[in-house]
Amino acid sequence: MSSSLYRLGLLMASLRWKIVGAWVALLVIVGGLAVGLGGTFTADIEIPGTEGQRGIDTLANRFPEMGGTAGQVVLVTEDGSSVDEHQDEIDALMEDIAEVEGVAAAPSPFDDLSPGTRTDDDTAIIAQFQMEGQTGAFPESSVEEIRSLVEEAGTPSLETHLGGQVLQSAEVPFGAGEVFGIIAALIILAIVFRSLIPAFIPIVTAIVGVGVSMLALVALSAGVDIPSVTTALGAMLGLAVGIDYALFILSRHRDQLAQGDDVHESIGKSLATSGSAVIFAGLTVIIALVGLFITGIPFLTVMGVAAAATVALSVVVALTMLPALMGILGERLRPRSIRRLMAENEGALPEPDPARRPRRSFGRTWVRLVTKVPALTILAVVIGVGALAIPIKDLELALPDLGTEPVGTDARDTYDLVSEEFGPGYNGPLLVTADIINTTDPLAVVEELESDISELDHVKEIQLATPNQGADMAVVVVIPEGGPTEQSTKDLVADLRDSAEGWEEDLSISDVTVTGATAIGIDVTDKLSAALLPFALFVVGLSLILLTLVFRSLWVPLKASVGYLFSVAAAFGVTSMVFEYGWFNGPLFVDVNGPVVSFMPIMVMGVLFGLAMDYEVFLVSRMREEFVHTGDAKHSIERGFTANAPVVTAAALIMVSVFAGFVTSGWFMLQPIAVALAVGVLVDAFVVRMTFVPAVLALLGRHAWWLPRWLDRLLPTVDVEGEGLAGVLEHRRWTEEHGVHSLRLENTVAPLLGEKGTLGPLTGAVAPGSLLVVRAPDSAARATFLGLVAGRVAPVSGVLAVHDRLSPDDIGAVQAQAHWIGADASVARRLEQIDGRRVGRSVIVIEELEDLAHAAVSVDDTLVERLDALLAHGATIVVGSRAEHATDAERRLHATLRDPRRMLALSVQRSTAQTPEGALA
């Protein structure tokens, strides 16, 4: 992958203005689609298959007057008079509301069939109305029209307040906090780079990535139900990872420029090294977010996929637009002092003074401190994180209701007024539905059902009990004693459902369900809580697998997974402190305390997993690299930490700044997620990765990098730090010295196909436009060599280059440019299918020389001319021969070629000693 990224970086830098123009054009096009399609987001959260959702769907079909979005008008007299004295005004208001488009029913609260709820002193009354369908099914303008009617109906003696689910908005509040988060990120970047110009680049690329993804979501929402919180979550995550990914690549580029590298060469190298790590980090976040599908919850899957798409786009922007911008700015990104020094030395950096001692850094001091007594450090981290995690025991989950809206909004004010005047239960009524089609006296059955329900604990009042117009379905509106998120209400829902079977038998009714917004919220929370453990196992298992692949170790992945769980525990504990205990509510703009949004834990676990693996890879991979080169376990920790800790520190601070900016939005749906992510990143970066991890590695010593040999052989090689780039650059230097070759082998060793043993080491080179005959009576040796050059066999050591592609790192590219003509295949027909104008970088492998000779003599007398044409266009043809020496067929082929000098021969045999097995001649 590193060699492909290296070429991608060079290509993006050379096409810099076109690439930037393409991204701007994409932003404009997607923006046009978003405006043209006019999509809207949904505020409803549904889980098909739950009892609450099934009940709402049944109401919509059989009792539409009760199945739509509910609204309420709360009317309070100012002078202490009875609301009966204002009946005419109130009736007129409800008649006007009934005329509004999208309103299904708006009965008078003085109606005997559906009387409104009054206070004991008759100074306040609640009038109910019902919209047609759920939010989004009726025009948004209807809500504004109703709001105006309610406001106009208010008089000096009568207060009017609009409330209920109808005020739930799908709009996402973005404000100054998000801007301040970006400004804080810009300041951190300016400090890191000590310059403003490079500091702006990550901000620009992150905004472009988020802009395209958010506008795409708006366009998609025209045909797909997308929860409104998806955009805020995507924007928050996209900005954070977009800035960080650009920072990792740009900081590597600046470091290389400071060492005197050429601008374009440095762009390619920075993408090949840090770009590899960015792809790995992005993939871990994407996999974790897409993995939300295992919860079986549709809205959560949509949120996960949308957030994953935003992260994927951030990775693509970092690999394309970022190198293009680096190419445009060119030398201006090189530190000014280095530019001045190079100008004084004719464009080259002078050799560093070997006597000059390196500056003492805080990073080196810190890592020495935490590894001095590693067991003590580990104990301190465990105690500290454990203390932060204690409040998790009080963390409660629920779906937000109108009581979590910001103070001062109509929805919140009416919600508080209802709780104060009537009781908290009136903000979360429960609907009990029953199929009564088999009853002979529907009214009597409804009355008996009402009586049974009223006797249950935690029932404050039965607000309404009635059959529908067809008398085949009954609805009982139950007012609980507690609010929608209180435990007593959850207990009441459980009691109602436990009693359903008995009522069905005693009253000859069927399909008794407990539904309504409150019941649905409880169902959603229960299902999300049940999905938490499977998702946690998925994430931890995934981290173990991925990190084992990257670090070739068992202890490092275990330590990383434990550290991730530490970060999650601290994040949840602090979230409980803020939203359950009320700590720091003022500075964080938190308006309400109580249960947090029920999908917070599972979403935070998914996002934090990717970010934790990100920091783990950037820090520990450098330590592993140092250990592999030196074998010194202790000093490799110090050198690796010192090299990468500053960038990880900046990246973490940027993440925290962006997440903290979203905390101040005041939107309760997002605030707990933003707080948990900010705390999780802070703890993960500074407590886990920069304190706990070095201490554990120091305690384990050399054992930290141990992996059983059998497992090492089974695991594929994953290059996340661009280790393969060294081979690419070495081959480039070799090519500059020896010229362009289509095949290069240097001490190449490969396992034999189908048998034990190896082939090689082989050394030699073949120029483009050559025909190579591979002689070997040993079928396994011959097949192995042909497989090597075609990308079907990977070498285990040495260098194998096919044109500029190295195997095994680029074995996919080697396969893509190879044409394989197997034994007994029609050589003439297969060669005819190859486009001679596009074979300059191709390798054509013909398994059997006899097949080629037979085709040239008996099938196609122009075959040799076709071979000459392919060779003239630069193709390399490799032919297998079963003979140990030149055969008659080989001699005839040599004699009939237009330029016999193009034909080479190589004898190969399986390894018997560590000596070259053949020479190209």
Question: Layout of helices and strands, plus pairs?
Answer:
Blueprint: H1 2-14, H2 16-37, H3 51-62, H4 64-67, E1 70-77, H5 87-98, E2 103-105, E3 117-118, E4 124-131, H6 140-153, E5 158-163, H7 176-193, H8 196-220, H9 229-258, H10 263-290, H11 298-329, H12 336-344, H13 362-372, H14 374-389, E6 397-398, H15 410-421, E7 430-435, H16 442-454, E8 459-467, E9 473-480, H17 487-507, E10 510-515, H18 517-551, H19 555-579, E11 596-597, H20 600-630, H21 633-663, H22 671-700, H23 709-714, H24 725-738, E12 743-751, E13 758-766, E14 771-775, H25 779-790, E15 797-802, E16 805-807, H26 811-816, E17 818-821, H27 827-833, E18 843-846, H28 849-859, H29 863-872, E19 876-881, H30 888-896, E20 903-907
Parallel strand pairs: 6-11, 14-19, 14-20, 17-18, 18-19
Antiparallel strand pairs: 1-4, 1-5, 2-4, 3-4, 7-9, 7-10, 8-9, 12-13, 12-15, 15-16
Helix pairs in contact: 1-10, 1-11, 2-8, 2-11, 5-6, 7-8, 7-9, 7-21, 8-9, 8-11, 9-10, 9-11, 9-21, 10-11, 10-20, 13-21, 13-22, 14-19, 14-22, 18-19, 18-20, 19-20, 19-22, 20-21, 20-22, 21-22
